[in-house]
Amino acid sequence: MAEITPSRRRFVVALAFLVSGFFALARFLKPTGKSKKTLLTAAKEDIPGNGALVYKEARVAIIQESGKISAVSLVCTHLGCTVSAASKELVCPCHGSIFDWEGNVLKGPADRPLPSYRVEERDGKISVTM
Ligand code: FES
Predict the structure, then answer these.
(1) Is the pLDDT assigned to residue 11 strictly greater than 80?
(2) Per the confidence metrics, is the pTM higher than 0.70?
């Protein structure tokens, strides 16, 4: 039986570390693709016509206006308060910013629009995804 020399042992150990390091690195560098995360689903019939269905815990509003359905975040872009849905606009109770139903700023101090989410309709269900 052949004797394993110390230099051969070091080479094998170094090779094992190199291979395991490569796989560990490849795992983090591999693109994962665009995975969409479903925030919530709702029945289309629950969304008021020309109104908003508000999910306070998720801080998301599904809005239907003239048959078009959209979803916006209710996290104020000023300092993060939860925006309330009023008729035809979204109002921040903290410092008075006002947004339209598409999340655009109508009145500051917020200077950025509310983030919007993707909305998919399938079989009468509305899915809101990031
Ligand atoms: S947190 Fe909304 S206006 Fe300041």
Answers:
(1) yes
(2) no
